[in-house]
Amino acid sequence: MNNMLNNQESESKSLPKTWVDQKANLRKKFTVLRDPDLNYEESEKTEMISKLQAKLGLSDERLLSIMEGR
After folding, report:
1. For every residue of 25-50, which 3-state class applies, written as one string?
2. Could you tell me which of 33, 29, 9, 10 has the C-alpha nearest to residue 69?
3. Which three-class secondary structure state does DSSP give residue 51?
4. What is the torsional sign of CA 69, 27, 60, 42?
5. How far apart are CA 19 and CA 5, in angstroms?
6. Which pTM does this prediction carry?
7. Cα distance between residue 10 and residue 65, in whole Å
8. pLDDT (tens digit, 9 = 90+) per residue, 5-54?
9. Cβ count near 67 (within 10 Å)
10. What are phi and psi of 16, to 5 degrees?
């Protein structure tokens, strides 16, 4: 039973984070971010990422890492 719980925990840690989780990570780390900064529309994802990078002064890789909670 304990082994099964450990497997479920490790599987959930490896699942991709939802946008809600990613947004929460960003808001926690960068209090300057407001709701309009984090409005997500699939067709404007690249534009949003670029705006966040400019506002926060982060590389694409670093921003995505933070969004994923790493």
Report:
1. HHHHHCCCCCHHHHCCCHHHHHHHHH
2. 29
3. helix
4. positive
5. 26
6. 0.66
7. 19
8. 444 444 444 445 788 888 888 898 999 999 899 888 888 888 988 999 99
9. 19
10. -65, 145
